[in-house]
Amino acid sequence: MKDHSFSLASMEKSDRVHGLSFAVVIALSLVSLVCCIVAEFRKAQVKDVKLDGGLCYIPGTVAFGFGIGGLACLVITHIIGNFVFCRMIYLRGKRPTLLAILLLGVTWMSFGIAIFFMSTATSMNRKQPYGRGWSGGDCYIVKNGIFVVSGVLVIFAIGSTMCAMREFNGNQRFEIDSLKGDQFDRSCI
Question: Which of 23, 80, 81, 170 has the largest CB neighbor count within 10 A?
Answer without folding.
Answer: 81
